[in-house]
Design goal:
Helix 1 crosses helix 4 and helix 5 crosses helix 11. This protein is of the alpha/beta class. The protein is built from eleven helices and 13 strands. The longest helix is centred in the first third of the chain and has 29 residues. Strand 9, helix 8 and strand 10 form a beta-alpha-beta unit. 45% of the residues lie in helices and 23% in strands.
């Protein structure tokens, strides 16, 4: 049944029979047969079928929740038993919102120093996607906002607070200022993250509170690197997280300006599934996050 639960999780991830089969290393008929056998074992129809994948039945959605729990427990057991023999090792997948990507090294580097046999995959995703990846066991942990989207059944470790700065260039509008207001920012053409990103929704909210409910950026991107590379040319302006403004190397003509007004800060943190037992790798990651958090809070 474990193998069939893996097929169910793959289908939930891919939403396509062919891609789900490929991700599991089996043929599509093998995938379909495995799902059919699972349905026969449980005595209910789990998948809405047509010429293509349509969705899960209500029973299928519930079975999917149990499959995630069972597969998570099996993975935790395998990892813990392996760790008893040869120490902590394996693969740690961390999904993070784009503005938090520069901060990941603050967590992964000390973790790697203690657990050299653990390898990492870092995934950039929207805040909603971070939660989906963790829920579907496609990521072991995430870095996201703790005070905006509902987090559900997750354990959290606060890491630092995200603030915002205005980036422009010498000679551009507002480029001669030492500070700006949100009202000032609303007056210039901007390049911003796409609306599916929580950072963009935060910026839109601040601009709306300054009396500009509908701002249409001249450029949108779902990549912070794309935004910062445009600002670096000296021809674009943007509002970015303070962590990005501090980390990215800008030429001398680029100005990073504080935004006056009520201080806008949002809590960033590590999130993992709140389950017992946790995998040894996730347990170690939580411990590392708690260890580095005080230093991040002081610096940022």
């Amino acid at each position: 049944m474990i193998d069939r639960f893996e097929l169910l999780l793959a289908l939930a991830k891919e939403r396509h029979f062919g891609r789900a089969a490929e991700s599991c290393g089996v043929t599509q008929p093998t995938l379909s047969a495995g799902l059919k056998q699972l349905e026969e074992q449980l005595g209910v129809r789990l998948v809405e079928r047509g010429s293509r994948f349509i969705g899960f039945t209500p029973e299928g959605e519930r079975a999917l929740q149990w499959a995630r729990r069972v597969i998570g427990d099996v993975r935790a057991m395998r990892q813990e038993i392996a760790g008893m023999r040869k120490g902590l090792s394996g693969h740690l997948r961390i999904a993070a919102i784009p503005t938090a990507m520069p901060m990941l090294s603050e967590l992964t580097t000390p973790f790697h120093a203690k657990h050299a046999d653990v390898r990492f995959t870092l995934i950039s995703a929207s805040s909603n996607e971070v939660l989906r990846l963790i829920e579907n066991l496609e990521a072991d942990a995430g870095i996201t906002y703790l005070d905006n989207d509902p987090l559900g059944r997750l354990k959290t470790v606060p890491l630092y607070k995200e603030g915002y700065r205005f980036l422009t260039s010498v000679g551009a509008p507002l480029g001669d200022r030492t500070t700006v207001t949100w009202e000032d920012v609303a007056q210039v053409p901007l390049c911003l993250l796409t609306p599916d990103m929580q950072n963009r929704r935060i910026v839109d909210k601040q601009l709306a509170e300054a009396g500009h409910a509908k701002i249409v950026p001249m450029l949108e991107a779902n990549s912070t690197i794309a935004l910062l590379s445009h600002v670096r040319t000296g021809k674009w302006a943007s509002v970015v997280a303070n962590t990005l403004a501090d980390v990215f190397a800008f030429p001398a003509n680029i100005r990073s300006l504080p935004i006056e007004g009520p201080e806008v800060l949002h809590q960033m943190g590590l999130v993992v599934l709140d389950r017992e037992p946790m995998t040894p790798i996730v347990t170690a990651l939580l411990a590392e996050a708690r260890a580095v958090a005080p230093g991040l809070t002081e610096r940022i």
